Amino acid sequence: MSAKTHQFLCLHDNYGVLLHDPGSGATASIDAPEAAPVEAALKATGWRLTDILVTHHHNDHTAGIPELKARHRCRVVAPRNEAERVPLVDLTVAEGETVNVGPLSARVFETPGHTAGHISYWFDTEHLAFVGDTLFSIGCGRILEGNAEMMWQSLLKLRNLPDETQVYCGHEYTAANVRFARTIEPDNAALTARADEVAALRAAGRPTLPTTMAVEKAANPFLRADDASLAARMGLSGSAPAQVFAKIRAAKDSFRG
Ligand SMILES: [Zn+2]
Q1: Is 20 a catalytic residue?
Q2: Which of these, 170, 158, 174, 171, lies nearest to 213 by C-alpha position?
């Protein structure tokens, strides 16, 4: 594992992330919520922007692209299934393809549901995943352009990643996600441990991300819709996991905690 990362806040609660390969100097911005914080991060690290890897078309993930591309002439990589909604795309990628940042290689997963063409990037040898607005710590993205079955299948793809994978997400939503999740699984010890950790991090003004797949598999109810005890808690024993997932997602959509 040779890659370096640098995470920083953008807009209100978006995260920007730079991924850097020290050997080649290649540096990718994962999404580009706005140009100024990315520029500040480049200045702080001394890294030179070579690529922007886009997870999905939403404005709070792409608005910084035109300014960054004009200044750095970087390559813009975007999901093939919604590339027409992303500015200044140079390369489109789809399920199973690989994309490189210098010598660093990512496998692309199509993870639709939040948007219809959303993709995630997995740098397997670096143990890094960039999942945009599909998976959050102790939560998942709102289903805006898909359905519950589609989102559940997307989350299952991410759940297959190794436990040690460091997971970078698009937003700092963890504290609110924890409040909701504890109403669903109050007796989940892994969730209680994560809740304590999140409270301490937020009290110190620190980010709760990245998270790890090990933590999310154990504590995130949206990855546990095929757990029998969780299905029972949702009153859906014996139901298809996608149905259990749909009910948890609907409960979160109306949760005011
Ligand atoms: Zn989004």
Answers
A1: no
A2: 158
Q: What is the pLDDT of residue 30?
A: 98
Catalytic residue among 20, 31, 51, 58: 58
| Residue 136, token pair as written in the block | 């959050």
Each residue of 140-161: pLDDT tens digit?
999 999 999 999 999 999 999 9
CA distance 114 to 100: 25
Task: Output the CA 65–ligand 1 centroid distance in Å.
Answer: 15
Ligand 1 centroid to Cα of residue 95, in Å, is 19
* CB count in 10 Å sphere of residue 254: 6
Q: Beta-carbon neighbour count of residue 96 at 10 Å? A: 9
pLDDT at 256: 86
For the question of residue 171 being annotated catalytic, the response is yes
How far apart CA 178 and CA 82 sit, in angstroms, is: 31
Active site residue 226: no
pLDDT in tens, 78-106: 999 999 999 999 999 999 999 999 999 99
**Ligand 1 centroid – CA 22 distance (Å):** 30
